[in-house]
Amino acid sequence: MNKAIRPRYLILTAMMIASISAGVPSVTHANSGSGAFGGLSSIFGSKSQDILPVHEAFGVTTTQDGERLTVQFRVTDGYYIYQDKIALKLPDGVVAGQWQFDQSPNWVDDPQFGRVAVFESDVIATTTLASTQAITDTAIGLKWQGCAKAGLCYPPETTNVTVSLAANPDAVKAMQADGMADNNQADTKADTPNTANSATQATSQDNTNLSADIIGTDGTALPSAERYTLDHSYTPSQAGSSNPVMMIGLLFLAGLVLAFTPCIYPMLPIVANIVAKQRSSSAKRGFVLSTAYGVGVASAYGILGALIAWFGQALGITAWFQKTWVLAIVAGLFVLYAMMMFGWVQIRLPSALANLLQQNATRADDKLGSITGSYLAGMLSALVVSPCVSAPMAGALTAVAGSGSAVFGFLAMFALGLGLSVPLMVVGAMQGKYMPKAGAWMDKVRQFGGLMLLGVALLMIERILLNSLMLVLWAVWFLVLCLWFWRLSKMGFRVLSVLSAIWAGCLMAGASMGATDAWRPLNTTQSTTGYTQTYPDMHITTLYELDQILATRQKVLVDLTADWCIECRIMERELFTHRPAALSDYQVVKLDITETTDESRAVLARYQLFGPPALLIYQEGKLEQVLLGQVKRADFEMALVK
């Protein structure tokens, strides 16, 4: 290698490493590990981590010395407790001052609540009690809530504390006059933590009264040694990142496809100018400069992806991706992106902003002959051209916003930008001699991208619409794909056209027979022979209703579900549409926790669950089995006959 060129290759390599490093945030948040390595492990998958039951992850010890109440919280490494969730539920006539802590809290970006104050190690909290009348061995409720750094938060807990106080009405009046005690100010609802005030009220009038022990309906405690496994390689909110390596690779290929659309042409004069500015007419030199330009383009996209993913996590966007209405909006966005690819809709930046970006890109013209100048020109050019490629880029941004990982967001969008820039690098190396001419074939590439975006929209809708109508929508899509392939008039495309038509026919046939699985449209042979419904299904929302049912039925199957739970809908289709014969003897109960209420939190607390889906199998009032997460049909049938 030419000695004059070698340092520039080293600079270029360092630039690429720096670009990737820029996308790795140093901030630690609730669903990542520590620092960059924790983020990378969350992307590429890590070993399953045991999530401790709440009373093993945390411990509470209380002591009273006169009017002073001291609470010591034991916090296991890898967990934390919310500062503003610590509160007392006091009887009438008893007040408490503000909590005093033996250490300052840390601030974390919680996946559910945003930026909140927490304690990540053992902490001691003290407060002063006062009562208008003497009380002896009176129970008060100590409320608190904790979370695992792995990204799962426990329901609020209430620990009963017995206190004795002498009558001291003057102290009560003094505390109320000084604003130190106000039983009506604290708000300890699980879904609305106080993130603004650093001072923590010690009192609460919330009527939630959950037992500190997790008690089964038969009056015995559920096994405390039981562990629940969290697999970091997949969570429902990761919006397509269950196989992040594959997704990053696909985005790189998507960038390659975009490179052959007319949108890339505004970059060509810049690349040509970069090559022209070089002092020596060397293919290596042209490749180095154009690669620096391409890395700049990819870096701009990567930084944008990291910002979208990071702020999406901090603002709680990841939690929204379980909701039906959010999925519907995202599907609508992909339809809009497809219309933009077809040229039916045009959305561009305001002319003033576009002109400003263009002027800044032009100012870098004098430095285009250097690696640094080419890199900066690439970053600015990405901003100028992004309105043209906004349809696919916005689709990718929508996906990374739901991932919750800034590292994944950076790498995903960096891959898209790098794929987009590969032809530019080739052009730089070949000095522009072999650039294909614009023509109708480039329009075909753009149309194909639009069809693929419509397919993505259908994939989103499929998580909402779990019936035969979904098969009809897929059949229409495959028919459109069939016609598009046929019009290309090439033998290979004609074969694809015929295959698309055959699959569309299978989908229509499956829809007519009541099938609901678009990928197995003719699989309607599941037999309901042998199943007889002994009891009608019951839909409830409270533990009181459940206890009444358990007292009157020998066998009960409790399906813990929620409207926003996508896996619950899939299980409804796969397990309960065609019911096995073994389910005949069971009373099926749908326990709905769609709304976050005291009752729904009590349900999760009793069974020490983090949320739906879950299947609870009772026999003679005793909880025999708990099936967590999305359950396969084979496992379901096996559990029923045990």
What are the defining features of this structure?
642 residues; alpha+beta; Immunoglobulin-like; Glutaredoxin; five-stranded antiparallel β-sheet; 20 helices; 20 strands; Protein-disulfide reductase; Thioredoxin-like_sf
Low-pLDDT residue intervals, each spanning 5 or more residues: 1-49, 182-201, 203-242, 385-391
Per the principal axes of the C-alpha atoms, what is the gross shape?
Answer: flat
* Helical residue percent band: 40-55%
> Could you give the distance between the termini?
71 Å
Largest sheet: 5 strands, antiparallel
Q: Tell me the Rg in angstroms.
A: 30 Å
Task: Indicate the topology.
Layout: H1 6-22, H2 35-44, E1 49-51, H3 54-57, E2 58-65, E3 68-75, E4 79-82, E5 87-89, E6 94-96, E7 100-101, E8 106-110, E9 114-119, E10 123-131, E11 135-144, E12 146-148, E13 157-165, H4 169-177, E14 203-204, E15 228-230, H5 244-258, H6 268-277, H7 283-314, H8 317-320, H9 324-342, H10 351-363, H11 371-385, H12 390-401, H13 406-430, H14 440-462, H15 468-486, H16 491-512, E16 538-540, H17 543-550, E17 555-561, H18 566-576, E18 587-592, H19 598-607, E19 614-619, E20 622-628, H20 633-641
Helix pairs in contact: 1-7, 5-13, 7-11, 7-12, 7-13, 9-12, 9-14, 10-11, 12-13, 14-15, 15-16
Pfam families: DsbD_N, DsbD_TM, Thioredoxin_7
Protein name: Protein-disulfide reductase
Domain Thiol:disulfide interchange protein DsbD N-terminal: 49-163
